[in-house]
Amino acid sequence: NVSMQHVQCRVCCCLHISQQEAILEDLRTDIPVHFNFLFSDSHVEVISGKLEGIYAWIGINFVLGKFQHAHNDGDAVVEVNVPGSDQQAALVRKRTAGVLDMGGVSTQIAFEVPKSVSFASPQQEEVAKNLLAEFNLGCDAHQTDHVYRVYVSTFLGFGGNAARQTYEESLIKNTTMQNKLLGQHVGETEKTPLLDPCLPTDLQDQIGTSEQKLHVLGTGDFDQCRLRLQPFLNRTNEPQTSLNGIFQPAIDYNNSQFFGFSEFYYCTEDVLRMGGDYNASKYAQAAKSYCATQWKTLRERFDSGLYASHADLHRLQYQCFKSAWMYEVLHSGFSFPPDYKNLKTAFLVYDKEVQWTLGAILFRTRFLPLRDIQQESLKGVHSHWRHSFSFVNNHYLFLVCFFIVLLSIILYMLRLRRIHRRAAQRCSPSSVPWLEDGLGSPTLPINL
């Protein structure tokens, strides 16, 4: 985001360190050349998944107005033990929203932890230190009304595309091993395909490389697909853990709200057309129906334009798998109950796409008092216009003043010219009747 004085760059973690540094060096060289604002080399950095989660959490809650502590009777509130307070005094303030985000490679969760956390073991406490962030969004370090404790965890390899790749690699490995042990030829040709419950019914596909290719045929069994995917969550029996056995504080599912972005939205909306308020039962039923539908029928619906405009054949092919994966991550991985009612899948919030860069700006300016920002926003559109005008459009103000002065001068000169012309007309010979032509002396009137 090069429009601000602090520039942050999230470089894909899959890039080699030398490639990352080359990209950063290009930014350090080019930004001062093309943009006229204060900039130093330290303003470009590779942020961690934890920071990205914090920024995303701050951004969405700022847009939702969750940092305005003044609340009405109908607003959801939560009692918070403010981190950093000597007395650990309880504070009642607006309930913030949690964030779920599933991309192609990773999955992320971020939410406020209002109460103090207890740990099952010293090892768990040590791990939790890297997953819990405490920060003050207020005006200074001494005022704790805007201190937040947020849990953020990023799970590499648990995104939709990465999960499918891991699943396919497992199919190839297990099938190859069984073929060798039992002398079978499953998946080696189209006539002997491996049956895959995570693909739509009768969809033929090839997975693997040219050296180790496997032919698969979809059977479209959503429930069976879910069962097959559960081992890939790497859950453990330890308390307060989620995906991959990573520590996760308890969530008060009776008093919480979450927004699901990226794949959480695509899985519910692109094909199933169920984006928005999430209902696990209806979602599972719709996904089950989709998986069981013949691939030929799905193609006909696609060609007829019945799905979202940006849904492509890749989405159709792997919608069944991704629907099951999203469901398992949410309910088996993060342990959301099937009757949870406060999850909204979304692409836009208030008709705007909320990026983590907004949270980064707020985080970097966190010692500017939020209450002043809120008071400015309450002054209405006129105050906002004035603020923007004074700081953004000063050059327009100068130009307007210049043209007003120039116009005034021109009008004044035209008025003077008009006055002089009238004066000249009064003093001209033709306008004085008592002047005698050609004599140069006046003829005085005589009284008879």
Automatic annotation (TrEMBL):
UniProt binding sites for ATP: G104, V105, S106, T107, Q108
Q: Which GO terms describe its cellular component?
A: Golgi apparatus; membrane
Q: Which InterPro entries match?
A: GDA1_CD39_NTPase
The answer to keyword Cell inner membrane applying to this record is no
Which GO terms of type biological process are on file?
Answer: CTP metabolic process; UDP catabolic process
Under Pfam families, the record lists: GDA1_CD39
Task: List membrane-spanning regions.
Answer: 396-414
Q: Which family does it belong to?
A: Belongs to the GDA1/CD39 NTPase family.
* Protein known as: Ectonucleoside triphosphate diphosphohydrolase 4
Tell me the classification of the organism that encodes this protein: Eukaryota, Metazoa, Chordata, Craniata, Vertebrata
